[in-house]
Design brief:
CATH topology of the largest domain: inorganic pyrophosphatase (n-terminal core)
Oligomer: single chain
Number of domains: 2
Largest sheet: 6 strands, parallel
Bound molecules: guanosine-5'-monophosphate, manganese (II) ion
Radius of gyration: 20 Å
Helix content: 40-55%
CATH superfamily of the largest domain: inorganic pyrophosphatase (n-terminal core)
CATH class of the largest domain: Alpha Beta
Strand content: 15-25%
Order of helices and strands: HEHEEHEHEEHHHHHEEHHEEHEEH
Strand order of the largest sheet: 3-2-1-4-5-6
Shape: globular
Number of helices: 13
Distance between the termini: 33 Å
Amino acid sequence: MENINEVKSLLAVPKDIVITTHRNPDGDAIGSSLGLKHYLEMLGHTVKVAVPSESPNFLNWMPGANQILIYDLQQEAVKRVLEKPDIVFCLDFNSLERIDKMGELIAPLKAKKILIDHHLFPEPFYDYDLHDDTVSSTSELVFDFISLLGDKSKINKTIAECLFTGILTDTGSFKYSTSPKLFRLVADLVELGADDTKIQDLVFNSMDEKHLRLIGLVLNERMEVLDEYRTAIITLTKQDYEKFQISRGDTEGLVNFLLQMKNIIMAAFIHEQPTITKISLRSKGDFSVQEIARKHFKGGGHKNASGGYSYIGLRPTVSKFKQILPEYQEALLNNDL
Ligand code: 5GP
Ligand code: MN
């Protein structure tokens, strides 16, 4: 961040601050937002977190999670907090499109917009940014942001646990996007009070029986393996959502199961939502799914985790995905881990 001193003086007197993050907020989106919220409140600011849509239940335990405003459910309340904030922090997304209608409310605001994000190719809608697409997570960057402001010593157990959760989920339990710097930072978080065992349990062992059975069913009945492309796909139609009684959060993390197969390099989860067909892509090693999401599915993301959507319906989207595979066959077959 080049203008850290300007940001520091902005934050020197109490301000009305809104923190927002991307639609379908995940552990990093919520963890970084709440971690930053608790820090800013400690400085004396008035802080509201407002997000486009609901987050999965396994994040509900996080301190402050129950005060998050959700545009899908509380439009008027979100509009009210976005009337005249002094500062808007935009966390874990790189383009206002990623926050749907809230983007249209935020774009014209006079408020200073501060981006903290680790996605590739951010669009320049902000006044200040702490952006690095090589780090694990936005939560890592929030830690860096607080440190840059000279306040590392202010990080307490609550902040540490929020940031730990974001890092834990965005690295798939420290499996990817790690670095020596990250492990040192995580050691700091544990020293500052983050209970890593408790958090792993709250985040990963929170399934109810129905959910676990559902995953078994979906893997058994809706998985397709394309060995010649080292690719596996799960597809879910609107009817599947009804037939199997799947609710939105149930499919969180589903795509990652596919990468547990030996030799599978790319995983796709393609499913129908009320108006769009959504595609989630994951990969291993050097094979980048970012380009596929960006070029073919109006999306983007990271090298190993990207997503996009289409308006052409489920079957045509699956066909389109399969049709582009030959273009990537060589890269898929030659990918070393
Ligand atoms: P997920 O598959 O979990 O929905 O998303 C994985 C990653 O892909 C997200 O962190 C985000 O970076 C990116 N992503 C998902 N959907 C979209 C989209 O519609 N547009 C863009 N630009 N990125 C997306
Ligand atoms: Mn993230």
